[in-house]
Amino acid sequence: MSEKNNIDTASLVDNHSDYLLSFAMSKLRDIDLAKDLVQDTFVSALTKLDTFESRSKIRTWLTSILNRKIIDHWRKAETRYTDPISSFFDQEDDSKQWLLEKKADTGFKNIDIQIGEEETLNELGLCLDTLPEKWQGIVASKYIQEKESEQVCNDFEITSSNLWVIIHRAKLLLRDCLKTKWA
Length: 183
Fold this sequence. Notes:
Elements (H helix, E strand, L loop, with lengths): L8 H20 L2 H17 L10 H22 L31 H18 L4 H12 L4 H8 L3 H23 L1
Helix pairs in contact: 1-2, 1-3, 2-3, 3-4, 4-7, 5-7
């Protein structure tokens, strides 16, 4: 590891694992897969730590790595199939009737749409990093972890009116940030 990246790996994992897991869960909705991809992200980051140039925040860099891992997972899942011939037949019975209308029912959207959505979410993640740290936690708790307002208020020791003021101001800042990135 180079001297410019003298980063404590234990604190790296401690400081960013919850955020990365929330980020992965917002896209995958599968806790085991999300944990696996977050773990893969840290392995990749730790092996490439000497290439981190500090031009962005470490969290942004880690999120970018995780985002690529999620996209790679979707690409592999999209192209994975076992028996190409069987896809032309109705599998309800053994008569091997040709399907009149074959629809791709992989459960995944068109990969171009997914990548566009991922890029948008990545930009949103970069904008989230510009918010004050407490606001980041509040927005993540409310919208990524989907906690009830009362729980968020208890977690951050704020009143419900304070919660909605923070949420409103955070949304305004996020909107302005995204406008500048998409302009």
